[in-house]
Amino acid sequence: MTSTTRKTPYRQGIVDSSPFILVIIPFASLFGVLAAEAGLSVIETMAFSIVVIAGAAQFTALQLMQENAPTVIVLISALAVNLRMAMYSASLTPYIGSAPLWQRALCAYLTVDQSYVVGVSKFEREPDMTVPQRVAYFLGAVTPIVPLWYLFTYIGAVLGAQIPQSWALDFAIPITFLAMIAPMFRTAAHVVAALVAVIVSLLAAGVPYSLGLMIAGIAGMMAGAQTELWLERKGLAK
């Protein structure tokens, strides 16, 4: 029996998501620094991270706040970026939807990009896992992520401008999302959605208040859905 098979689902989730520690630390620190530079207090910054707990939406809202965008634009943009969480929830429902309410509520709060990617990949590879095992694995996958997100958001907010620009913490943002999306390119629909989103985001870069990202996201989802429908009609979809 290997050491991997001896691990409980919770411990295996921790192991499988641990590589994200390398990027979540600078990612959270950068948000704390930028929030402090934008004039948010430490308490406001921590409340932002604890309540929203979605890095992409937080950075989007913070950038728009710095651009003095109307409050309604800030809210709509942050909600649009976080629409992916609704899709994550729908994707997770067949796997953990029958868990007790309190477990589903906890998993809903702790659904972040990293826990979703690691969790769904595991559930698809091992369809025989029981619901309690899936919940345990999912909670294990988020264990190295969320506490560090809180901690280093706080450290970034406290240190603020004391962190040298030469550290270039912003490298963590693209690396984090590249690490998450690469394993998800399993079908032609995924690839088309990503390519269309990238192209449209570049073409719409001049749209005010970063709304070009929303347009690109919608275009990517539509392109991916249409590609999947086309493949199904042709009998090519898996």
UniProtKB/TrEMBL annotation:
Can you tell which superkingdom this protein's organism belongs to? Bacteria
GO terms, biological process: L-valine transmembrane transport
Where does it localize?
Answer: Cell membrane
GO cellular component term of the entry, any: plasma membrane
Task: State the annotated membrane topology for this chain.
Answer: Multi-pass membrane protein
The record's InterPro entries line, in alphabetical order, gives: Brnchd-chn_aa_trnsp_permease (IPR011606)
Major subcellular site: membrane
Pfam families, from UniProt?
AzlC
Q: Which UniProt keywords apply?
A: Cell membrane, Membrane, Transmembrane, Transmembrane helix, Transport
Q: Does the keyword Transmembrane helix apply?
A: yes
**Transmembrane ranges?**
20-40, 46-65, 135-155, 167-185, 191-224
Q: What family does this chain come from, according to its entry? A: Belongs to the AzlC family.
Name of the molecule in the record: Putative branched-subunit amino acid permease
Name its species.
Answer: Sulfitobacter guttiformis
